[in-house]
Structure formats: structure tokens, C-alpha cells
Amino acid sequence: MDELLQRALERQKALRVELEILDKFIRSYVETKERSAERVTNADLFDSIAPPSRRASRAKRAALIAAMMEDAERLILEAGRPLTRSALLKALTGLGHEIEGSDKSKVLGTNLWRSKRFHNLKGSGYWPRNKPIPPEFSDLPQRSSMLLDPND
Fold it and tell me: Is residue 39's pLDDT more than 60?
């Protein structure tokens, strides 16, 4: 598939997730306002406007990270070899992913580790756990997330 089209489809998917979260917030807010309409006066209007709940913020952040992990796996498989954090960081930010924090590489590494989706092949980078490791990298020591269930 054309890379530009692929990027557009991925961005569309991320926007749909964000829109769904925003729609849920708006519905919840409208329902709350309708239930308390009798008690609201003009002076209360500005006091009643609250930021999205923590749960909505967490859900949005989780959706954005999940989309980023999907893109990371796709980028690695397209490269046909493990990719380092710095290579993934450059490619993911190029796709429009925003990584918060002063040490973006470290934040990305933490997200890759927490996702439980990748092995870290010592000296070469990350490779998806659910895909066979290319033969030229199969001798490298593998480090997986310590969060993995030993029965996995």
C-alpha cells in the first residue's frame, strides 16, 4: 500500500479513537447537565465546566499508546530487522505520534517494555514477540518485559 495512504489511514484510525472518547465525554456531560438543570443558575455555569475525567484521559492516552505500538510493530516488520529505540522514535514521531517527557527515547522504551509485545535483542533493538526472529538475529540474547506471565 502507498505509504502516504497508509499514514492517512492510521491517522484516521487514531482520530476515530479520539473522537469516540470525546463523544463519550460530551454525552456524559450533557446527561449530567440535564439531571442538574433545575439547580443551575447563570452564576453556576462557569463553575460547572470541568475538564474530562481522569478515566477519559487515561483511556485516550492508552488508545494513543496502543496505536503507537501498532505502528512500531509495523515499522519493525517493514524494515525486516530489529529497530533501536532511537530509530523507532524518529519513525514514530515522523508518523505524528507525540511522546511526552524530557527523555522521549526512555519514555518510548518504557512503553515498548510495558506493552509486553516486544523482545529486546541485545545490541540490535526491538522485535515483535509474536513473530519469528530473523535467522541473522536469532543468536542474540533476548530480553522480554519482566511483566510477562511466566506461563506465556
Answer: no
Dihedral sign for Cα atoms in the order 56, 57, 59, 60: positive
Number of Cβ within 10 Å of residue 101's Cβ equals: 10
Evaluate if residue 12 carries a pLDDT over 70. yes
What is the distance between the alpha carbons of residues 71 and 6, in angstroms, rounded to a whole number? 10
Q: Beta strands of the chain (E only): which ranges?
A: 118-121, 125-128, 142-144
Beta bridge partner(s), residue 126: 83, 120
- Among 27-41, 54-68, 116-130, name the most confident range: 116-130
pTM (predicted TM-score): 0.60
Q: Beta partners for 120?
A: 126, 143
Tell me the pLDDT tens digit for each residue of 105-114: 999 999 999 9
Task: Specify whether the CB–CB gap between 118 and 127 falls below 8 A.
Answer: yes
